Amino acid sequence: MKKNFLFAPLVLSVVFFAGLARGDSMLMIGRGGAACSVFLEESGANKMWEFLYHSWAEGYMSAINVRNTATNSDINLFVATLQGRQQIDFLKNDCKDNPDQTFVFAVMNLYNEIKRRQ
Fold first, then answer.
1. Which domains, and CATH codes, for the chain?
2. d(C-alpha 28, C-alpha 50), whole Å
3. Interatomic CA distance for residues 4 and 10, integer angstroms
4. How far is residue 8 from each of residues 11, 19, 55, measured CA to CA in Å?
5. Whole-model pTM?
6. Measured between alpha carbons, how far is 63 from 16 in angstroms, rounded to an integer?
7. CA-CA distance, 54 to 20, in Å (whole number)?
């Protein structure tokens, strides 16, 4: 048991520094940290990936909204003109225009577009 306790921090350190060596974003976890070009590739290859990215985006925008309730700056995330397929299309278009940006920034652009439409 004690061996595992000592071994775990070593493994975590190696994984962490290996990630830094590869230049991966340590800003966030999940699909939000992927490059837009990866989102476009994965979502184009399989609709499951499209669903996963969109679900991540909805959760991220919901978390922003929950945080913003403290300052009364939350928004209505349901905009009839920008739901489901339209959101995915928005994200894809934003990523096509900015393939090197991180997916989370496309999500932030979507959030701002929803806010603008209210």
1. 31-116 (1.10.890)
2. 19
3. 10
4. 5, 17, 31
5. 0.76
6. 25
7. 27
Query: Per the structure block, which two tokens stand in for 118?
Result: 């209210």
Distance of alpha carbon 55 from the chain centroid: 9
- Name beta bridge partners: 99: none
Cα separation, 53 vs 18, in Å, equals 25
Q: Are 33 and 89 in contact (CB under 8 A)?
A: no
Instruction: Check if the beta carbon of residue 97 is closer than 8 Å to that of residue 89.
Output: no
- 64: which 2 tokens? 């922003």
Percent of residues in the chain assigned helix, strand, coil, to nearest 5: 75, 0, 25
Give the contacts of 28 (CB within 8 A, at least 6 positions apart). 104
Higher pLDDT, 55 or 2: 55
pLDDT, tens only, 23-80: 455 667 889 999 999 999 999 999 999 999 999 999 999 999 999 998 988 899 988 8
Residue whose C-alpha is closest to residue 103's, from 48, 52, 37: 37
